[in-house]
Model the fold of this input.
Amino acid sequence: MNTNALFLDTIVTVFQVAAAIFAILFRNKYFETPLRYLYLILIYSSFNELGAWLYAQYFDYNALLYNIYNTIFFLYFFYVYSQYVARKNHRNWIYIASFIFVLVCIANAIFKNFVQWPQVTAYIVGASFLIFCIILYFIEILTTSKILNVKQHLLFWVSVGLLLFYVGYIPIKITRLYFANKMDLLLTIKTVHILLIIIMNACFILGFIWTTKKK
Done:
């Protein structure tokens, strides 16, 4: 690993751990909301990165850890947005999206070894549905009085971070699938990927600091 790559990976780790720490320190702001388990997700994210690195030292692959993590991550946020949206039809759409995502996960695991291979189809479907959930949430914010103090809502900051990350990362995921042998392109993509992770976690941290306690 070259110096620049090591530096960027270190920065990513710092931001991920920092987001988890802030989530713990400011947990009282959101412990009575559907986001109450967010700190556990962020802690899991940090340990998953470490576990994936260690796993890769002994095996030629670490897809299993990421496949499990991604499934849990998407289902958690589907649950969160289903609890936050007020319109019944929006909530039903999220339930349907969650059901379809589970079916895609099962199908992807059948046709692609869940232990050894990244579940790319399931990931893209999950990320696309998460963007859809975020859009529904933003639509409801724009049409209610919540827009007046939106900066005080933790889910707003979490949503901004998630939206920026997944809108940027879905094309990267697809590019990696079809251009796996182009090293120069992959290095550039990795740099963008790392920057997206940093931006997402920075949004989380801002949210923990700026938001007020919610019930």
Q: What stands out?
A: The two ends are 46 Å apart (CA to CA). The chain has a mean pLDDT of 89.
